[in-house]
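From the methods appendix. Each design record in this collection lists the tokenized structure first, followed by the designed amino acid sequence. Records were kept in a plain field format so they could be parsed without special tools. The example shown here is representative of the layout used throughout.

RECORD:
FOLD TOKENS (142 positions):
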């Protein structure tokens, strides 16, 4: 059921379109952290989310990811209250993911955070993934 919030409803529709039209062009992963987040909230919706991601490979939370997340927070790039966002980015980074797909434009798909995060990750020997929304990863039609 679409959200009553028009922006959220639009994001939901774009996500459904991405999932239907583009997902097969990528190797998809989900982190342990995402599994936890998907199981929260309304039981029926949580079950639906779990079914959608059931067959995706799971990336574990490693010490390296925890350390990088700590640096992202301690350097002030991501606030402590949003440390989970730093961990999402760190997991994708340490596993060498090419993309991190998200609608979190406050702390993740945010150019003002990505540039310094990319510099910081690089100084630690990591390559930050391209962090973008499903809308930005819809492909090109020529």
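DESIGN:
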């Amino acid at each position: 059921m679409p959200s009553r919030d028009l922006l959220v409803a639009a994001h939901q529709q774009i996500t459904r379109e991405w999932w239907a039209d583009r997902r097969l062009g990528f190797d998809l992963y989900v982190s342990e952290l995402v599994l936890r987040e998907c199981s929260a909230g309304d039981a029926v919706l949580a079950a639906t989310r779990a079914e959608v991601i059931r067959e995706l490979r799971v990336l574990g939370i490693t010490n390296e990811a925890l350390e990088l997340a700590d640096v992202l927070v301690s350097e002030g790039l991501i606030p402590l209250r949003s440390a989970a966002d730093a961990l999402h980015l760190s997991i994708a980074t340490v596993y060498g993911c090419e993309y991190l797909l998200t609608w979190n434009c406050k702390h993740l798909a945010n150019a003002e955070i990505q540039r310094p995060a990319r510099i910081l990750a690089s100084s630690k020997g990591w390559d930050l993934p391209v962090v973008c929304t499903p809308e930005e990863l819809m492909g090109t039609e020529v």
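APPENDIX NOTE: The longest strand covers residues 29-31.
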